Amino acid sequence: MTAAHDATLAADNPFANPSALPYGLPDYTRIREEHYAPAILAGMAEQRAQVEAIATDGSPATVENVLVALERSGRLLHRAVVAFYNQAGACSTPGLEAIEEELAPLFSAHHDAIHQDARLFARVTAIPTEALEPDTAWLLHRTRTAFERSGVALPADEQATLRDLNARITSLETAFGRELLAAQNDAAVLVTDEAELAGVPADARAAAARAATERGHDGAWLLELQLPTQQSVLAQATDRELRERVLRASTTRGLQGEHDTRAILLELVRLRAERARLLGYEHHAAYVAADATARSSDAVSDMLARLAPAAVANARREAADLTEALRRDVPDATLEPWDWAFYAQRVRAQRRSLDDAALRPYLELDRVLTQGVFRAATELYGLTFAERHDLVGYHPDVRVFEVFDADGRGLGLFLGDFWTREQKRGGAWMNNLVDQSRLLDEPPVVVNNLNVPKPADGEPTLLTWDNVITLFHEFGHALHGLLSDVRYPSQSGTEVPRDFVEYPSQVNEMWAWDPTIVRSYAVHHVTGEPIPAEWVETLLAARQDGEGFATTEYLAAALLDQAWYRLAPDEVPTDPADVEPFEAAALEAAGVAFAPVPPRYRSSYFNHVFGSGYSAGYYSYIWSEVLDADTVEWFHENGGLRRENGDAFRARLLSCGGSVDPMDSFRDLRGRDPQIGPLLERRGLAASS
Q1: Helices H, strands E: what count in the chain?
Q2: Which terminal CB of the chain, N or C, has fewer other CB atoms within 10 Å?
């Protein structure tokens, strides 16, 4: 194996040496776009040379000279890559997009060159397995699996085919994300008559006016789209025509015009199917599930099929109530997808005397973060947080917090990037900028991204209840990274199977509902009055409101993902016009075709499975929720928000990262295998399943 790129890097490149900032935070004050490509190319060359030395080492294979050496390799590449992809996702520019497009196939080739190296694999398999410590034994198992799933045992000609497939797939993923971001920006709904915004809160109107001005539409309002099908304005706007306009703009992203994503997604589906067949799997869904806790795509299908009928039945019951409310306004009207959120809010307000419009003044971002999210972490784990105004992120909106453990020791950094912007991909996510590792003596640096509309200067950021849940969810991922305590960097924090990674983040959502925490963060941003006690009781009583809709829209997306990725190569449509008919047939076959409840994502903007790492894995959220709901029961059984419970959850699960079989971590905490009953109860499915 020879270096494919020049390993030299200019000394003044910010990536030439580890960052000198606290906790190794990348020095974004020095990093420029032109620094990324040279650092990444040099990093690839450096790692290839390091791996060559491991593969050709003539001494007997050991943990130290193979596994540890591999863990230590590629540090320059890692520093540059994590900084690059973090910025590319949150602050995209034409320059960054060009770099990503150029480097995507090179990343794929770099990975394949390492994991298809028979000499290196022989060194890995020659490591003696006697008396290995558990984390090392698991690392050896996972390393061998990675080589096998990368085609190390294939004949040379099939390896070459696999390399070509991987390079093209990587390029297409990048292209899908790029086109979707452009399509999403183009689909933003411009409003020129303020009367159309009746019902939309003043702060949301101000954010829309700001967005319009930033895009050259002074005196207008621009309703920017969030990634999922549903948009927050659909629950607020009284103008039915505006709601229809917004919903249609949302559901037609990527289906037409310059940024049509359908040809890309069809090629991705076909190539992933071809790759799975080459590696000995029936289809891509089987390939993905085999390396996850699900183990088989049939297990995934069985679970989704078990849940779907009850979820749709609940959604139909909810639809009957909403139709009744709609017809009081529009006699003989048919309930449409753009009506659901609006009338769900109205029915909820009538039944519960509470809706998002009443809640939002009590849900100011900074207070929810500090007195809600952070406070729960303090109560559970003893963590404290101090904002570091002397440290900067990759964008002026990014806030940096130093995190301290209960003993006052600095634990790591947390970066929060909460506002939407034109250059930022949709959705919410967590990134690592530095992976915790005792081997490399590196503490964690983690990032949370949300997409909340930015208010006018000096105005508060008021959240919806869904925003609050998302904030707690993403911080659950952050805790998984911050509380990691592993030896090897490849096992740090969230380096666990895709269908396990959502589990800790979903558990952390429970504290958004905890009455003690709610009373701490839910304070009126003007009067300082705490949320009325009866409202807290109402929130808790209303947890199952709308679960039919929520479960059905999620399952529709998860089943659509499975339908695409259970296809054989010759079954994949070739005409982009066939995407919509395929969707309709797949949803009908799965029993989730219910017109008022479209999938949470349609194919053309399903970034999780076509532009990100969730292909054939969107089921992971509900699969992880089985573990989550069972663990919430464990917390309740043991007294809820108590430090002893947090310490146990941290020690037995969060700190372990990917250093053990993740299901063993769950069993260590719960004392048994997971049970589905708590999930069925939570989602109102127990009686029907």
Answers
A1: 27, 7
A2: C
Domain covering 360-541, topology: Neurolysin; domain 3 (1.10.1370)
Pairwise CA distance, residues 162 & 148, whole Å: 13
Q: Is the CATH number 3.20.20.70 carried by domain 259-354+546-618? A: no
Write the DSSP symbol of residue 464.
P
CATH 1.10.1370.10 segments of the chain: 259-354+546-618
CA distances from 363 to 200, 367, 415, 454, 525 (A): 16, 7, 20, 15, 8
Identity at 39, one-letter amino acid code: A
pLDDT one-digit tens code per residue, 648-686: 999 999 999 999 999 999 999 999 999 999 999 999 998
Torsion region of 453: left, alpha or beta (phi above 0 gives left; psi -120 to 50 gives alpha): beta
CB contact set of 617 (below 8 Å; sequence gap of 6+):
288, 292, 498, 499, 561, 608, 609
All CATH 1.10.1370.40 domain ranges in the chain, comma separated: 360-541
Q: What is the C-alpha to C-alpha distance for residues 77 and 51, in angstroms, rounded to an integer?
A: 13
Return the structure tokens found at 497.
Answer: 């199977």
Rounded to 5 degrees, what angle do the CA atoms 222, 225, 228 make?
Answer: 165
* CA separation for the pair 181, 244 (Å, rounded): 22
CA distance linking residue 248 with residue 223, whole number of Å:
13
What single string gives the DSSP state of each residue in 590-632? HT---TTS--SS-GGG-HHHHTSS-TTTTTHHHHHHHHHHHHH
474 part of the active site: yes
> Diameter of the chain by CA atoms?
83
The secondary element (H helix, E strand) that includes residue 191 is strand 189-191
- What one-character-per-residue DSSP string does 217-255 give? -TTSEEEPPPSSS--GGGGT---HHHHHHHHHHHHTTTS
C-alpha span between 384 and 399 (Å, rounded): 16
The third-level CATH classification (topology) of the domain covering 22-153 is Glutathione S-transferase Yfyf (Class Pi); Chain A, domain 2 (1.20.1050)
pLDDT tens digits for 473-506? Answer: 999 999 999 999 999 999 999 999 999 999 999 9
Residue 197 region by backbone torsions, left for phi larger than 0, else alpha for psi between -120 and 50, else beta: alpha
The count of C-alpha atoms lying within 13 angstroms of the C-alpha of 95, restricted to the half-sphere facing its C-beta, is 9
Query: What sign results for the dihedral spanned by CA atoms 168, 169, 174, 177?
Result: positive
What is the per-residue burial (b if ≥16 Cβ within 10 Å, else e) of 527-536? Answer: eeebbeeebb
pLDDT by residue (tens digit) across 524-574?
Answer: 999 999 999 999 998 888 888 999 999 999 999 999 999 999 999 999 999
User: What residue ranges in 299-458 does DSSP mark as E strands?
Assistant: 384-387, 399-404, 410-419, 429-434, 445-452
At 260, give phi and psi (nearest 5°): -70, 125
The rounded distance, in Å, linking the Cα atoms of 218 and 209 is 8
**Catalytic residue selected from 71, 474, 495, 553:** 474
Smallest CA-to-CA distance from 514 within 551, 452, 468, 550 is with 468
Question: Token pair of 475, please?
Answer: 């911080």
In 91-222, alpha helices (H): 94-115, 118-125, 134-149, 156-187, 202-214
**Phi, psi (rounded to 5 degrees) for 452:** -95, 135
For residue 646, pLDDT beyond 80: yes
